[in-house]
Amino acid sequence: MKPRYGAGLKYKLQEVPVEQIDLGDRARRKYRNIGALSESIKQLGIIQPLTLVQQQVLGKPYRIVAGGRRLAAAKIAGLGKVPCLIYPATVPDWVLRRIELSAEKEKEALDWVEMEWLVREVRRLEALRGVDNAEEIPGDE
Questions:
Q1: Which domains does the chain have, with CATH numbers?
Q2: Could you read off the pLDDT of 67-125 as tens digits, one per residue?
Q3: How many CB atoms lie within 10 A of CB 25?
């Protein structure tokens, strides 16, 4: 059996100031619905950490591997720090690109039936607790 890409890689979880993160050379260059994500982050925070690698160049100690859209939205939302998984600088570039590719490929939006069910469930639970659900649900356009 072939070894898995990145199997056994060590990382740490910590909050990192946004100004310490370099975008580097990334595959994704356009971020869609950044305003909606920024509003969601203002309301709920970042629910999935960004993925970074330590670096020794460009005056910034970290380079983004996955989560560029979340970083851009966090900046718009005014966050000073973001939660991150941080890999050491010793991780080979090909493994980092595999992580980036995997993160992009794993994204799968809910279909409209799943989305409708989830929106109704959120509203039902809010109503049970007396939460004013007149506010739009982030991403519910």
A1: 12-107 (3.90.1530.10), 109-141 (no CATH)
A2: 999 999 999 999 999 999 999 999 888 888 888 888 877 776 667 787 787 788 877 88
A3: 6
